[in-house]
Amino acid sequence: MDRDTKIREELEQKEVRKIDMSKEKSRAGKEKQQKDQTKSKWSDWLFLRRPPALLDPIRRLFEPPRKLLEPYIKKGQMVADLGCGSGYYTLPLAEFVGPEGKVYAVDLGKNCIRALEKKIEKGGYRNIEAHASSASDVSFIRDRSVDFVLANGLLCSMADHRKAAVNEIKRILKVKRQAYLSLGAGPPFGYVDQEEWEKILERFRVEQGGSYKEKWAVVSIKQG
Ligand SMILES: C[S@@+](CC[C@H](N)C(=O)[O-])C[C@H]1O[C@@H](n2cnc3c(N)ncnc32)[C@H](O)[C@@H]1O
Fold first, then answer.
1. What is the pTM of this model?
2. Which end of the chain is more exposed for a tag (fewer CB within 10 A), N or C?
3. Mutational pocket test of ligand 1: of 79, 154, 168, the residue with most ligand atoms within 8 Å of the beta carbon
4. What is the pLDDT of residues 157-193, one digit of tens each?
5. Cα 215 to middle of ligand 1, angstroms
6. Which residue, 11, 30, 49, sits at the end of a domain?
């Protein structure tokens, strides 16, 4: 074999190896993507779950919405129910604020919002604005326009962008008004561990609750 043929063969072999490696890379990439998708499906199942609306009558016995809402809500107020599910708290909120008030109901789950819209229609509510959207971007709500934010079981259910959701709560809440934050559960059933919970609360003035054991807090905007 002459020198030129040898060099050509070596170059060809190098090229084949390069193609094989890039095929291997793209196969590994695809596998990772598929794995991530499976992971997010499992976590959706695990973390986006909520008590089925069928159980609402039983839930009402143990967790009457009035008990949580009554101290904070007045007629005519603007409120936001972030991570509203199918509206366990949204409808009572709408009753509390009355026709002069307004409830923004936000949930990432389209099915939740669909179920809520049916309830809104059936009940003839005109003061609820429902959005299938992430709590990490509620740009349809104006800065400092909301008298009360309810984020019941929201942050622990958010796989990501929790910091952005907290930013949004801070942005929309009026000064000297309250937000109710609660975690349904800590890891492995919810995303927020004690360190993160404490960091979240550091960004507000804590008015009530706040311990990780209790997993709820009433907070307001820090001033000054
Ligand atoms: C534990 S459930 C609580 C539902 C409702 N607040 C209640 O008390 O019945 C949490 C809700 O947060 C919603 N969620 C999860 N991630 C979200 C996100 N990024 N933005 C808005 N809602 C989200 C889920 O779809 C689910 O309905």
1. 0.81
2. C
3. 154
4. 999 999 999 999 999 999 999 999 999 989 988 999 9
5. 16
6. 49
